[in-house]
Amino acid sequence: MPIEHEYSRVIHHGGRSFFATSTMADIFIAHARDTAERGDTELVPLLHKGGVELLLVGPLTRIAMSEIEVGTALDEVPPPKSPRRLPAPASAGSSSSSARRHRVAG
Q1: What is the SS3 assignment for 66?
Q2: pLDDT for residue 43 is more than 90
Q3: Where does the record place the region Disordered (predicted)?
Q4: By C-alpha distance, which of 63, 60, 12 is closest to 39?
Q5: Which of 17, 69, 70, 73 is most buried, by the most CB atoms less than 10 A from its CB?
């Protein structure tokens, strides 16, 4: 029976995305941060859904990590709010030239 893992983090590196468990993502980020703070450049291993990658990490390497959030069923999502409308301009006492100056784009 295969082992089931919960891939709850995404590591973004070099234009690619890797799905990882929270533990593996935290280990990778800690190692990458330590490497960059020392001013070194290393291949840092990342165990992810597709296997193992050695990712090049240095002081200028951009890495991001995001959490995967699990949504709810569609019938539990509240309906979207209607867009807010601007109040209608007062027509009493306004000239056509002042109305042109105060038009709202859109």
Answers
A1: strand
A2: yes
A3: 72-106
A4: 60
A5: 17
pTM (two decimals) = 0.62
How is residue 57 written in tokens? Answer: 């990490």
How big is the CA angle at 99 (ends 97 and 104), to the nearest 5 degrees?
135
**In the prediction, which pLDDT does 68 show?**
87
Q: Are 58 and 41 contacting, i.e. CB atoms less than 8 angstroms apart?
A: yes
The H or E element that residue 42 is part of is strand 42-48
Give the per-residue pLDDT at 106. Answer: 46
> Radius of gyration of the chain from Cα atoms?
26
- The residues that bridge with 5 in the sheet, in sequence order, are none
HSE at residue 56, side-chain half, CA atoms within 13 A, is: 4
Integer Cα distance of 62 and 49 in angstroms: 21
